[in-house]
Description:
The complex is a heterodimer of chains A (223) and B (253).
Chain A (H helix, E strand, L loop, with lengths): L6 H40 L4 H16 L2 H14 L6 H26 L3 H9 L4 H31 L11 H12 L2 H32 L5
Helix pairs in contact in A: 1-2, 1-4, 1-7, 1-8, 2-4, 3-4, 4-6, 5-6, 6-8, 7-8
Chain B lengths: L12 E10 L2 E11 L4 E5 L6 H8 L7 E6 L2 E2 L7 H5 L2 E4 L11 H11 L5 H14 L15 H13 L5 E5 L7 H16 L3 E5 L3 H7 L2 E6 L2 E6 L1 H6 L4 H10 L3
Parallel strand pairs in B: 3-8, 3-9, 6-7, 7-8
Antiparallel strand pairs in B: 1-2, 1-4, 4-5, 9-10
Amino acid sequence: MLENFSFRTIVEYLPLFGQGLVTTVWLSVLSFAGALAVGIVLAAMNLQRGRLFRVPAKAYIDAVRATPLLAQLYFLYFGLPRLGFVLPELIVGILALSLNSGAYVAEIIRAGILSIPRGQVEAGVASGMTYVQRMRLVILPQAFKVTIPPLLGQAIVLVKDSALLSLISVAELTRAGQLLASDRFMPAEGFITIAAFYLLLYYGLKGLAALSGRWLGLAGART
Amino acid sequence: MTSLSSKNGAGMIEFRGVNKWFGQLNVLRDITLSVEPREVVVVCGPSGSGKSTLIRCINGLETIRDGDLTVDGQRLGDPATNMTRLRTEIGFVFQSFNLYPHKTALENVTLAPIHVRKIPRTEAEKAGRELLAKVGLADKVDAYPAQLSGGQQQRVAIARCLGMRPKIMLFDEPTSALDPEMISEVLDVMVAVAEEGMTMMVVTHEMGFARKVAQRVVFMDAGAIVESGTPDEFFSNPKTDRSRAFLSKILRH
């Protein structure tokens, strides 16, 4: 069975995979930065008492979580141009991942903030801090620590989701596998190789999560 | 602790006909109470009688429904009263300490002085070290709350309040969450604060503390002040059935 498996072709295509890997990494980094920005804004809106901000934030989060990422991507890629917004596919891809992941990030941040005990807010209030001071000095530094592990989990999901961008012909990692599959009719070689690269990225992020966990464990453990 | 402004003979804390409801429950019933500058008042009563709610109203952690509550000459709920500003004059010690877990003991003490009072960092740290030494924790300035015992955490919490140089200190069952052997170290600090002339309201069942420093004991039941008198009067000659029943329960052992 393995006599048909061509390691030589994989080696021959390695530069292509390398380029795909690099593209996947930087577009994931940009998308995750975008997701953090979207998530922070949505979480802040969702934590307000007034409905004016809370309701739109909740509606957005529900809409994103209820629909497939592929449908969102196709809407942005095929739908937006029909409405008059023509964007390069790479931008569309990063936008789709940011907007999608941002909804999940928002919930992670909100949960992190809500996990801080009420007594912490009261201690801040009692010492005369304003809302902004309480957030900045008391709540967010603590919430930040709680949210790092789930945020890295979300980053792993985002890296895997970025494979969908191959469908709008962004030359990322999965696209490289597709090219090998279609040019040489070698789907086994193509897709096992990209799987190996995704595994590599996964372990990289997991290592980062472990490192951050150890770093966060140093200070400020709660009784 | 210099300006003990007492306008027109009014107290530092003045409740006049204060009522509060949680839903259908009348948690504070027609409370009228005046606390003079430098006075130490102990509030006791059975669980759910409204003691904590009473002192939480003073710094606006709870709001009142009707009646008048004036603190340091400023009427709560009045648009002219800057609540955030007023709170800097009122220290509040919680039953569960509520220290900032991500800050060291010293940072806990200096955080509000630096950011709220706008005291320069070096000055705030110097004062913070002195306060921690005063509560017997000179060697714990760099410890995180998780590294401290309950009694030590509560002493840091008291130092944290004193760092703001408040005019009033409120204590909400400060020793209820502590192991018995740690209670006296916290009470000793509170006695020292009282003896320096701080205006204090203390919700506690530590009757030894009440006898030692309180000028007045207020007994509450079902949201109302049932009885009020000097510690001697209250302990040796309680006037109501409710207070007698309460005292027989807490003083039995």
